[in-house]
Amino acid sequence: MSLSFTRSVIEEFRAHGGRVGGPFEGADLLLLTTTGARSGLPRTTPLGYVRHGGALLVVGSNLGAPRHPAWYHNLLAHPVVRVEVGTRAFEALAVPTEGARRAELFREAVRVAPGYGDYQASTERELPVVELAAAEPEGWAGPPEVRTLADKILEVHAWLRGQLRQVAAETEAHFAARDAHRGEGAPPVPGLGLQIRQRCLAFCQTLRFHHDGEDGHVFPVMAGHHPELAEVFARLGEEHRVIAGVQERLAALLAGVGVAEPERFRTELRRMSAELLAHLAYEEETVVPLLMEIPWPPVAGGQG
């Protein structure tokens, strides 16, 4: 699609609650907003989708072209995406499926929209099938109500703990399956999958954004109001630097489509768990109580 046509489809979609005429009339259409892998800018693409269970599926058909579409490369670099369906908009974790799971879901996509089969027949590349699932970790509920900056930080901390716990559980389950296969003399279990990669990459990116915000704004402002806590803020800053080092090593291992060096990934993930959980506990003990009087969202024209 040309840029002008894509823009017109997006505008019509948003103006009419997800309904679009012309070649897309009556089709199941969503808007997928990814973050540019190189530019870092938001990129919105209208896509057909298929419902399967609680997830939405999108197929990287690119009309049967020999290359994957740009939005697919973007979500590999930035797994958290924004989805608009009808009048509803939400964040999702984009996970390309693999192996038997991908084959099963592609059959379902072809059953619903046979054109995907024609696109697959016209190219040698395997069309990606991407699940758009809940971005939150399993069991996520968040705080009952966010009224203060303290509530907001605790919400982010709870999300980070949940994501880290889920990635760690999935990683340990992988190694347990690998060891069981070894004991049975079965073929080796393939390397860590895209589910683990995408969730861990989303965790790393959110953690970096959170700590950059604290280092760039929250902590300097608080340190100015609480000079007696200079040693506390110095310790928190140093812990941020240590955690950033672990995060950079994890990001390097996640650079490819597959997780490189699974054993090293497991080691660095365990180190991240130890460092981050201790850091969050210390921050919640020393700093978060001081933020309970600051409203969230910030009051227009107010301080902070």
TrEMBL record:
Catalysis: reaction(s): oxidized coenzyme F420-(gamma-L-Glu)(n) + a quinol + H(+) = reduced coenzyme F420-(gamma-L-Glu)(n) + a quinone
GO CC entries: plasma membrane
Domain of life: Bacteria
GO molecular function: coenzyme F420 binding; oxidoreductase activity
Position of the signal peptide: none
One Pfam family it belongs to: Hemerythrin
SUPFAM superfamilies: FMN-binding split barrel (SSF50475)
Hemerythrin-like domain mapped to chain residues: 150-291
PANTHER family assigned: F420H(2)-DEPENDENT QUINONE REDUCTASE RV1261C
Family affiliation: Belongs to the F420H(2)-dependent quinone reductase family.
Protein name (Swiss-Prot/TrEMBL): Nitroreductase family deazaflavin-dependent oxidoreductase
